[in-house]
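Comment thread on ticket #2218

A.B. wrote:
> Attaching the input chain for the structure job we discussed in standup.
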Amino acid sequence: MTGPARYTPADTAAVGSAGLVADVIARTLADRPLLCDLVAHTPLNLERNVSPEAVRRYKMTSLGTVNQAASLVQRVLPDLTLAECTEFVATLASLAGAVWQMANPAPALAELTRPIRRWPRPASTSRPGYAARPRSCWPD
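C.D. wrote:
> Ran it. Output below, let me know if you need it in another format.
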């Protein structure tokens, strides 16, 4: 069994390649389902009932990671400012938490939606290689 893919600055060699940025981010998030699950729970549960120091440490670590990712995005897409890249990465991280919850419904919701075949199927579910595919909602 292999672990999550690791991406390095060398992976961002193709300057101007928005496709590379999209691929690296999609694979990075798809390789980390627990992270995607926890992102949604952070403001609801993990930042409550803890000390201010614990929240500060978490926020500083989180912001540092977002800033690192934004710097890598800017190396590939130099027409974007660092602030734009930071907003892009932070938005994607938030969306990852929300989309993960929708793509991986609770068992009761999965059971409810299984027989409903007329629901629209998102375009991304037909593309190979996307792990966040909501299999339980849109059967093959």
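A.B. wrote:
> Thanks. Noting for the ticket: The CA atoms of residues 12 and 75 lie 7 Å apart.
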